[in-house]
Design goal:
Blueprint lengths: L4 H17 L6 H26 L7 H16 L6 H24 L5 H20 L9 H8 L1 H20 L1 H11 L1 H6 L4 H27 L9 H11 L11 H20 L6 H36 L1
Length: 313
């Protein structure tokens, strides 16, 4: 929890700035609307955290979100009775895509950047081929309630957040961090590195599926509904202090980073600053995070070397 304090402080400052610019934000309706809007990104950030802390990347989640929403609309076409079967199918698709990403990265040893970039292109092409750029069908009211109703969105967000925290406090979380910190040392100590990373990708796919369900209910159907979300999720994670390359950071900080990023975007919109600046902000945050991590590493390496030398003697 201590590692999350800096980003939590930033979040408080941003929320205070929003309240100054828009006093309505302090009312329950205004704040709950913010939580509902931020929920998909927070869930995506939690999923992305599992992958990044293990030392990998997942660039496919944005396209996966789009696929999920488009498929749901096409299959449902407003049919209320098909809502739950389609929800189960969406979860299965997310798990399958995550499994494929994990197996290709770990078993076939294709770098995760290339694997998930390729998956992103495959999913984007599939959506365009199926829809021609204009999705057909409609989401049922029973489907959209998860993203429209604050109570449902809050419940889903709470369940996902609690599950993520419990996973990271269990043996799986320690295994994942150890894998990202030093893959070879983790393997020598008995950690099944490949299995840990495959599970991380599966969890990322699951998070993308849940985020798509919320986002579809909140924003409706579009062939661009998930565009750029992969970079927003990565930005949120590094904003929360999670080190790119793995081994350091907490899932609480990653989710707080997502809230802070959404609050920053909200503040920019309130002051009438162009939405195109959001990409600039994300780029600056990612570059700054990588630079900060590189500056910290030299101070850590001598300590590790010294400890290794002492152990060898």
């Amino acid at each position: 929890m201590r590692r999350a304090l800096p980003i939590l402080a930033v979040l408080v400052v941003l929320l205070a700035a929003i309240a100054v610019a828009n006093p309505f934000f302090l009312e329950p309706a205004g704040f709950l609307a913010f939580l509902r809007r931020a929920a998909p990104l927070v869930i995506l950030a939690a999923g992305q955290y599992f992958v990044i802390v293990s030392g990998e990347f997942d660039l496919s989640v944005g396209s996966l979100v789009t696929v999920e929403v488009v498929v749901a609309a096409r299959l449902l076409d407003g049919n209320e009775d098909a809502t739950w079967p389609v929800l189960v199918l969406l979860i299965a698709i997310g798990l399958l895509v995550g499994l494929v990403n994990g197996v290709v990265t770990t078993i076939l040893r294709v770098p995760s950047f290339i694997t998930t970039l390729g998956m992103m292109l495959v999913l984007s092409g599939a959506v365009f081929l199926w829809t021609g750029g204009a999705p057909r069908g409609a989401l049922s009211d029973a489907f959209r309630v998860f993203g429209r109703e604050t109570g449902w969105a809050g419940l889903v967000l709470t369940v996902m957040a609690v599950a993520a925290v419990l996973l990271m406090r269990a043996d799986f979380g320690r295994t994942l961090v150890a894998t990202g910190d030093n893959e070879r040392a983790a393997a020598l100590s008995g950690v099944r590195v490949a299995r840990a990373r495959i599970l991380a990708f599966v969890l990322s796919g699951l998070a993308a599926a849940v985020a798509a369900i919320l986002l579809g209910g909140f924003a409706g159907v579009s062939a661009q509904v998930g565009q750029g979300l992969e970079f927003q999720a990565i930005t949120a994670v590094v904003l929360g202090g999670v080190v790119l390359g793995g081994g350091r950071g907490t899932v609480i900080a990653a989710m707080a980073g997502a809230f802070a990023l959404e609050a920053l975007f909200t503040l920019l919109n309130l002051y009438g600053i162009s939405g195109a600046l959001e990409f600039t902000v994300q780029g600056v945050i990612i570059i700054a995070a990588v630079a900060a991590g590189a500056l910290r590493l030299p101070s850590l390496i001598p300590q590790k070397d010294k400890g290794a030398a002492h152990a060898a003697s």
